[in-house]
Amino acid sequence: MPGCGKSSIGRRLAVKLGLPFVDADTEIEAAAGLPITEIFTRYGEPHFRDGERRVIARLLAGPPLVLATGGGAFTDARTRRAVAESGAIAVWLRCTLPVLLRRVAGREHRPLFLNRDPREVLERLMTVRHPTFAEATVIVDCTDEPPETTTRRVMEAVEAHREPARLKVRLAERSYDILVGEGLLARAGALVAPVLPARRVVVVTDSSVAPLHLPTLLDGLEAAGIAVVGTVEVPPGEASKSFAQLERVVEATLAAGADRRTAVLALGGGVVGDLAGFAAAVALRGLPFIQIPTTLLAQVDSSVGGKTGINLGLGKNLVGAFHQPLLVLADTGVLATLPPRELRAGYAEVAKHGLLQGPLWDWCEAEGARAVAGDPAALAHAVLESCRLKAGVVAADEREESVEGGRALLNLGHTFGHAFEAECGYGGTLLHGEAVAVGLGLAASLSARLGFCSQELPGRVISHLQACGLPARIADLPRGFSTERLMARMRKDKKVRDGAMRFVLLRGPGDAFTTAEVPPAAVEALLRDEGAGE
Known about the structure:
It is built from 21 helices and 15 strands. The protein is α/β, with parallel strands linked by helices. It is elongated.
């Protein structure tokens, strides 16, 4: 804003960093051979902004520097995109109105303030500019303190800033990013604004997540001028993946005035993501959608890839749609609020990804205990590497059309796991990750029984999962199961083809495959031997 001190702070910062300082307005005047006021008068603002963008892009493409841009530059979407794509750190010197009024006193001769009330001018500019300024990489609040003090605080903020890891999911028709890092929820408005068709959203969350994280999200959205036209809370737990809750979410979204440019933001775990994503897929035949997962399970698995859906009494995820998000924000900082059981359940999907990828399994055996204990660095690694694996798999097989590989491999342990979940009634007595953990143990055991992997692999898988506090055998579960009923559930699994059950099996870590050539008798014998009744 006028009066924020960008030139004086910029020069001091350049000295501290040992870099040249450049004022974009001075460069523009030199390139045009005219003062900026005359460029505006002769050619108008659109012409000026176009030239300004080219000058800024040229400067950013050159050697490192400290660049002070004109106040209106960052409000131009193309200039913001050029800044972001260059990898530059954009710093907003945010001042309150009283501070700015004191600093612009005596500038009435400037074109911006000529014959105008400075307060009115600044208030109007704040309304227009602040929502886009909020997209800056770093925000430093400025007061009437000495410039040296502000410069020091800017320097500290720049040095402390850590860009989130950015993974690209490249699809046939479009691509989207997965952002992984701490503190993303507070910056959500700035991070989602560039991909939104309009600055209007509906937030879907659950009544457990809302008290913990909704206020932070709403503050972040408000800072970027994003209007939250509606908030929908559903009960926590797998039972919310139902037709009744789907209808409720869709009706609440439309009643809030959502149109086809209004995005649905899913704030929560896998249940919220699946439900909100399906609601976005069917409301008005498709609304834009953003995933903000708050559980480990959702961050490493369900939020990536565009699978959405609800459950039926017959089985899990039998009704749904492929509906890819515009963006996935995985704030690893929020994992600190997870109950230990939820954290352990999410880790089961990390272990699954490890078995699929190979080197990640070695990391799991060495460091997985740190992750389930809540170590931030271990959790960040688990999320990043799981997303990296899944992004590659989804890009190669977006709609799970490959029968023998691709996304089908991500169902390792799930044919068994979904059967246990269905038998428990999706009521929370068995979490999805816990069911998957038992499924991984069974998949490894079945692979060994059929001669595909070493006889020691099942023991490694089961021992590791149990050491991380997860069930890995049927006997680890708190209730009994019928072999006949489990087989009936698996025969209704959505992966069944031509009446044949399909299993993902292992030759070893990093070497998985899909097959329908598993004798049902072998599966029944395994279930009975592992503790299921007749």
